[in-house]
Amino acid sequence: MFKIRSLVTALALASSISVAYAWEALPTEAPAPADNATTAAKVELGQLLYHDPRLSSTGTVSCASCHNTSLGGEDNRPNSVGVNGQTGGRSAPTVWNAAFNKVQFWDGRAASLEEQAAGPVTNPIEMGMASWDDVVARLKTIDGYVTTFEQVFGKDSISKENATKAIAAYERTLITPNSPYDRYVAGDKSALTAQQVRGLEKVAELGCTGCHSGPAFNGPGVFQKFPVIANGTLEASHHFSKDKGLAEVSKKVEDEHLWKVPTLRNIALTAPYLHNGSAKTLDETVKLMAKLQLGKDLSKDETADIVAFLNGLTGEFPKQKFPTLPGTPGKSFTN
Amino acid sequence: MFKIRSLVTALALASSISVAYAWEALPTEAPAPADNATTAAKVELGQLLYHDPRLSSTGTVSCASCHNTSLGGEDNRPNSVGVNGQTGGRSAPTVWNAAFNKVQFWDGRAASLEEQAAGPVTNPIEMGMASWDDVVARLKTIDGYVTTFEQVFGKDSISKENATKAIAAYERTLITPNSPYDRYVAGDKSALTAQQVRGLEKVAELGCTGCHSGPAFNGPGVFQKFPVIANGTLEASHHFSKDKGLAEVSKKVEDEHLWKVPTLRNIALTAPYLHNGSAKTLDETVKLMAKLQLGKDLSKDETADIVAFLNGLTGEFPKQKFPTLPGTPGKSFTN
């Protein structure tokens, strides 16, 4: 009986929702803040800084180490590895399309890409620099950076502010348009398979798009509670209560377990999933999200359809230059 | 008296040696073995494998992590950092122009680039894969590699042999010609400063070129004993006796402290120096090598001239494509 009713509802909604829900393609450009226009020279400098392991205390960890632009914009690990083999408790979010996030970090504690870029560099378990003064001092010893910063920002311009502006400008170019989904939305009805279209309709029908809406599927809202519905079994296996999300920063009870709604773009490439990387596959994640956020048990077919749809969100990576970094003649790092 | 005699000898030798010693420019192509022709498609595959952290157990360490082609072909550290933050006892040699080494690794235990490429992947403190069978199994789960290997090597061709062939083919393209020294040798007498020319003449006069000869300054011979001359003070500070070089592999007394003669190409970019990374600067290294290998105490000016010359060995890095790696939908690594 339940199955039949579900099916009827699904069919009814499927025909209406594909009209009612406004599916949006990904923009090919990201808006920049008034004080940080995206220029080619700035993007190029940002790309160098982003890929430079000398921004870490040990000379071994760059932004790209955990947010790998050669892959899905992260590292396919539950937790990333920072300097001296240290790991934290959260899973690296993808840098692809991060320009479309309203806030940054899993707990949304940074309001902009610029603010975000400043964080990991001096985080003791990530890039481990003692201070941004130390980063600036180190960059000043690299002649190529002195010249390039001057070209982009003017004379004697190596600073935390300008370095993070350049990194943010670069990140605004890390957009992956033309996924099968985008081509489908643009009118190419053959771009998604029949199963993927079923999955697309299902995510709207179920209410996934209540949070994962918009061109990057990262919300109309900024934060969302997770898990919404308590589940002892899943808590035992996934330890969600350990990390209180936004409340870890704000120390407010009402912020407990609030998280930034993450993009679904390129999600097929970013296993494992969830803020703590505790869900290994898309199948597991889709079922778990339906259960914990919507109180729904998905069938095997529903799950497969949604996973097929999510696989249709993998876009095209932009062509990049190979980042040849300015050398530091005679400099070395210690253990 | 000693100073005056040195000066006279230096002048006498300087005029004769700049004729007598055959300075050679770097070839722009490296010869390939008969069974591993350098083709564009193979080089491209090799570049991907070289930059792919999924060749390590943790998904965090690629060949490029320690032999960084965005920089001087290594990591500017005394010892590199492998999986789980582990460090070994030797300093990563540069990959630039490694194609011109007669043997590979500091102890020369690999006869070819192909053989070398196989080593770090399964070294427990470097990339930590349990076996090449595991590497092959993992690569087979990545559709993009299945296709690319097929294009390069034929159907069902993912194997240790072919992966290392591709990496070696890529490495044969990592040549840095057109250094100031190369332009000088080619006839542009303004390419080196007067001080650099003094340094060039000095390295031949002192006998540095007895070992560091040829276009890559890595020998007519393959191995050289280091240190040649025992020095208690330098042993106390640099701990050379700890690592027995080739003898660590061969277990032969006569191989104790035999080392591959390293290239001097791009040496200004590859601090710190020596097999154990115990010399921080070029100044220190030049003085130390003269003392331990030739029994000579260099003056401040002699050292400065030689260091200036060595700075003239920094070549031009080839233009590379940005390595966009084939994705692994749904796969992840565990801690």
Distance between the termini of chain A: 66 Å
Which fold does the CATH topology of the largest domain in chain A refer to?
Cytochrome Bc1 Complex, Chain D, domain 2
Biggest chain contact: A-B, 49 and 49 residues
Structural classification of chain A: mainly alpha
What's the alpha carbon Rg of chain A, rounded to whole Å? 21 Å
Query: For the largest beta sheet of chain A, what order do the strands appear in spatially?
Result: 1-2
Domain module tally of chain A: 2
CATH architecture of the largest domain in chain A: Orthogonal Bundle
Oligomeric state: homodimer
User: Which CATH top level class of the largest domain in chain A fits?
Assistant: Mainly Alpha
Largest β-sheet summary of chain A:
2 strands, antiparallel
Descriptive overview:
Two copies of one chain form a homodimer. With 335 residues, chain A is mainly alpha-helical. Chain A has helices spanning 2-20, 40-50, 63-66, 113-122, 132-140, 143-153, 160-171, 180-185, 194-206, 232-238, 246-250, 282-294, 300-311; strands at residues 223-225, 258-260. Chain A has two domains: 10-28 and 176-311, Orthogonal Bundle (Cytochrome Bc1 Complex, Chain D, domain 2), CATH 1.10.760; 40-171, Cytochrome Bc1 Complex, Chain D, domain 2. Chain A has a two-stranded antiparallel sheet. In chain A, α4 packs across α7 (160-171). Chain A is globular and about 60 Å long. Mean pLDDT of chain A is 93; it is low at 1-19. At the A-B interface, loops of A face loops of B.
Task: Offer a few descriptive terms.
homodimer; 335 residues; mainly alpha; Cytochrome Bc1 Complex, Chain D, domain 2; two-stranded antiparallel ribbon; 13 helices; globular; disordered N terminus
